[in-house]
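Researcher: Re-running this chain for the archive, since the previous output was lost when a drive failed. Same request as before.
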Amino acid sequence: MRVVVDARPLSHPQAGGFRSYVRGLIEGLALTEGVEMILYLDRPVAAGLLPGNFQTRILSPNRLKSDLFLFAQQVRKDAPDLVHGTVNYVPATPGTGQTLTLHDALGLKKYAWEGVVKRNPREKAMLAYWKVATLSSARRARRLLTASHGVATELSEVTGRPLSLFDVVYHGVQLPQPRQSVLRDERSVLAIASPDPRKNLACLYDALSQHSAIFCHEGSPRLDVVCTHVAGGLRAESELKARGITNYRLLSGLDDLALARAYAGATAFAFPSLREGFGLPPVEAMTMGTPVVASSAEPMPEILGDAALYFDPHSPEELARALAKILNDPSEARRRSELGRTRAARYTALAQGEGTLATWRAAA
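Model: Regenerated structure tokens:
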């Protein structure tokens, strides 16, 4: 079977969840047999970034140009059995069957937190384009993949496609283990910054600033914030200063090994998100043995099981109490660490690759 994969997030300069997903997919498929993959990229990638002997095609950094013309032209030349979209949509390829990964329903329905987001005309136009592209792609796809059962149900409702056409394939963790042992801090909390209000970092900042008494006489722990975007880092610093939080570090420019060390060195990892498609960061933290305190919003209980401590994402006090339980009780921290490692072990690149390949075979 010959499959074209829209792997453009892999070569796009913007880091994020789409890139992590595509990396895991490609690493997992490199471990399977029975499929010839052709990766469509928007730019050349560094040598060694692609595992396996995959063919590649370079389209254009101009996404609209690729979407409207180049993608379909290249598919006609390559004549695959299937085309797989990885980023909630895939350009139309008349005459060739398609499968599609839908990560979440963002942009397809209105969520409560979106009322505070101000968009400029260009952003509004892009969001409208993505919505039309996503819905039309979902209608064309023979089968659809997503990363949790809760999200599959929601997506079935908003796209109108039968739930029976959705396959749940969990993401695989690709973050490497630190090359040397890392000494875990006694009182530090790690989080990942984002300008996206869905990530709900304000809940964490309020937990540390408004409920410091919950953390006993030592006071609030040091907060380490991983900044993957410039805008996210600027917003994090502004909000921390506005709340009078001084015991913090902003960590930027981390490669995979540095990120792994940041996870491994933290006492706890906090994840207050209001909604996720899968939620890779807490799974990465668990892989490093770091206890996780996570929002009870979908789909975190499905993904993290009994390994995480949960809190209402609208309650900074609940978050503070969950963190204090880890920080003030070493035996609880050790128990959560062990449960987390066991839970995270099920999320492998191989399982992701095999699950995706099963969907492709069913669709073909």
